[in-house]
Design brief:
- It is built from 7 helices and 20 strands.
- The chain has about 300 residues and is of the alpha+beta class.
- It has a single domain, classed as 4-Layer Sandwich (Metallo-beta-lactamase, Chain A), CATH 3.60.15.10.
- A hairpin with a 5-residue loop joins β19 and β20.
- The longest helix is centred in the last third of the chain and has 16 residues.
- The termini are far apart.
- The chain binds zinc ion (2 copies).
- One zinc ion binds next to α1.
Length: about 300
């Protein structure tokens, strides 16, 4: 895949077969995808002027400048891999890696399946595989870095509602009737799942609590807040992960307080290696204390 670049000398061209669901015959508008974060925009004739999610200090524009691609281009060189993570949970990951390298998690419940977070690629094979598992009753997304092609996913499954916290409304670059913003501290989804607003990394960051996960001990689907560390006994709490901007002690305390009423033993992050397999709640609390001690200067070298 060769992403389009935004350059006056080399204007991006519209693809031969734009997203079918959107367009009238003869319409050359395309729902462009940002190649860095993977978010899909409202259809337009040429690429949008910028990606506000990547222009923000929590993400980045790569050294070659803003790059764009399309779903058709993505479909030509990529596919999605579905993997059973545990009973009732399937991960959906694009290969070769695209954008941030994020994955979506499909939580299977007796009241319908919920897609947690999203990937940019959606194709016939993926739709068939998800339909085989009962389709989608709802989509919920932790925060703007993982919005991906959420509207395409919703439309492929009968306009499934997309649950996003109200505090992140301004980051929605492809508004749609399926998007359901909600406010407050928590809200219920099908199958006994609960969305919990945690803020911090993004104003509207949310996590999904799955009480039946981890053999009934409970699982937390967390996106990247908190984010599992390389040493998988720990998590970290950052405003920006790529640009290494930490969150304050007060914000992290708010997260720990929001998670306290939830029973969970396992934490699923945004990629395969971001997994706290057991004792996740204790890890989050211990990590919050470590984070606070570091911010207060426990490891300071200067002594004057
Ligand atoms: Zn972007
Ligand atoms: Zn993020």
């Amino acid at each position: 895949m060769s992403p389009h670049r935004r350059s006056p000398a080399a204007p991006a061209t519209a693809p031969a077969s734009p997203a079918r669901s959107e367009l009238e015959p003869g319409d050359l508008a395309t729902a462009w995808l940002c190649a860095t974060c993977g978010v899909q925009f409202t259809p337009s004739a040429g690429p949008p002027p910028a990606c506000p999610i990547c222009d923000d200090e929590r993400q980045y524009v790569g050294p070659r400048g803003q790059e764009w691609t399309t779903l058709d281009e993505l479909r030509s060189g990529h596919r999605n891999e579905l993997t059973a993570e545990e009973p009732g949970l399937v991960s959906i990951r694009t290969t070769p890696t695209f954008a941030i390298g994020q994955r979506a998690l499909l939580v299977e419940t007796p009241d319908g399946n919920v897609l947690w977070d999203c990937v940019s690629l959606i194709d016939e094979a993926t739709i068939a595989a998800v339909r085989e598992r009962g389709g989608l009753a709802a989509i919920a997304i932790s925060h703007p870095h993982f919005y991906a092609s959420m509207v395409e996913w919703s439309r492929a499954f009968g306009g499934a509602p997309i649950w996003i916290h109200e505090a992140d409304r301004r980051w929605i670059v492809r508004p749609d009737a399926a998007v359901r913003t909600w406010s407050g501290a928590s809200t219920r989804l099908p199958g006994g799942l609960t969305l919990v607003h945690v803020g911090g990394h993004f104003e509207g960051s949310q996590v999904l609590h799955w009480p039946q996960g981890a053999g009934g001990r409970g699982a937390l689907l967390a996106g990247d807040y908190p984010s599992v560390c390389a040493d998988r006994r720990w998590v970290t709490f950052m405003r920006s992960y790529p640009n290494a901007i930490p969150l304050s002690e007060r914000e992290v305390e708010h997260l720990v307080t929001a998670l306290r009423p939830l029973a969970f033993d396992r934490l699923y992050g945004w990629s395969r290696d971001k997994l706290l397999a057991a004792e996740a709640k204790r890890s989050v609390e211990r990590s919050a204390l470590r984070h606070a001690r570091a911010l207060r200067g426990e490891h300071d070298v200067v002594t004057w």
